[in-house]
Design brief:
about 35% helix, about 25% strand
């Protein structure tokens, strides 16, 4: 068994890849954004048996880095031993895995256990696209069905806008939502690079309009039998027209048209979530569409250089507290300015 770098694209690799974040195209986009990406294959003689795509994130002012592998399959203990050798050669102090499923109990060890941080949500919500349209509508909350009909009566239409112009419409809606809800998303350059690299085969854009005015935007990824909905935005001035509700319904129809079996709404709180949680709003919104909750694997760190890892963990905690204080200070400034 051997871990090898893969430097040439071969379409056959996709048989081992079950999520768009492990796709060759996603890696290309990250490379265009200046991130070092390793595509690593586990080989039995010359037969590729497992695929892992890892991005490398340098630790400033040092020769060390941290690796990150999102939505791969869970590594085995044999695979982790190969990764440790690779990491030592490349000064990688730890590799963070966020796999599709949790590793087996036999894999968990002192050098591979749950991480102190989480990057991707563990939970998502899914919609079964093998059901008929009638069944899907029946499974929704009555309010969701009403809002879909309301949007249609108010003249809202949804169309695919997988073009340069469509991206600009989507970006404005996404950026407006980001500012309105106060979260820090990725930059214009990041999103544009992802879109340019993943379209037209993987990424698709949809825009809700009323009287030619864009009011909601939806970016989706198609991978194997699943449609993913990772990014969206809307114009608060048109909130009463329920464009997002009609948009989700049209994503369902789009997935069914392609013969897909699942719509993955990307991120969610777990079942029984606290209504006071900042994510409760969009978690509850997704739930109205008759979804089922699904858990991915958690976040795990393979620790290669324990002393440096401990220092990294401490510095990461300090950095987190600094950002927390900064955000509180920024919120205080905004509140003070609004009273003047």
């Amino acid at each position: 068994m051997e871990l090898r770098k893969i430097t040439t694209y071969n379409e056959s690799y996709t048989t081992l890849i079950d999520h768009p974040l492990q796709s060759w195209q996603w890696g290309e986009a990250r490379e265009k954004l200046g991130t070092t990406v390793f595509r690593l294959g586990v080989f039995e003689v010359d037969h590729l048996t497992a695929w892992y795509q890892m991005s490398l994130h340098p630790i400033p002012k040092t020769k060390f880095s941290v690796g990150y592998i999102p939505r791969s399959h869970a590594p085995t203990r044999e695979h982790l031993e190969l990764f440790k050798g690779f990491a030592r050669e490349h000064n990688i102090i730890a590799i963070t895995f966020e796999p599709l499923e949790d590793p087996t109990k036999e894999t968990i060890a002192s050098d591979f256990n749950e991480s102190f941080m989480t990057l991707l949500p563990k939970w998502t919500q899914m919609i079964d696209l093998t059901k008929s349209e009638e069944e899907l509508l029946k499974d929704m909350d009555a309010q969701a069905r009403y809002n879909i009909r309301l949007a249609e009566r108010k003249g809202v239409t949804i169309s695919e806008q997988s073009t340069k112009e469509g991206f600009e419409m989507f970006w404005k809606l996404y950026e407006d939502t980001e500012k309105r809800q106060g979260y820090l998303g990725h930059s214009y350059t990041h999103h544009k690079t992802i879109w340019n690299t993943l379209s037209p085969d993987i990424a698709h854009l949809f825009v809700a309009t009323v009287e030619h005015t864009p009011i909601a935007g939806f970016e989706t990824f198609v991978w194997k039998d699943t449609l993913y909905y990772p990014y969206g935005g809307s114009d608060a001035a048109y909130q009463k027209l329920k464009g997002p509700n009609l948009g989700i319904w049209n994503l369902i129809l789009f997935g069914k048209q392609l013969g897909l079996t699942k719509l993955d709404l990307w991120g969610s709180l777990p079942p029984g979530y606290a209504k006071e949680h900042p994510w409760a709003g969009f978690t509850g919104f997704k739930e109205t569409f008759g979804t089922t909750f699904h858990a991915y694997g958690g976040t795990y760190d393979l620790i290669v250089f324990p002393s440096y890892y401990l220092l990294y963990k401490i510095l990461f905690g300090v950095r987190k507290q600094v950002f927390k204080i900064y955000n509180l200070f920024t919120a205080w400034k905004k509140a003070f300015a609004s009273k003047r």
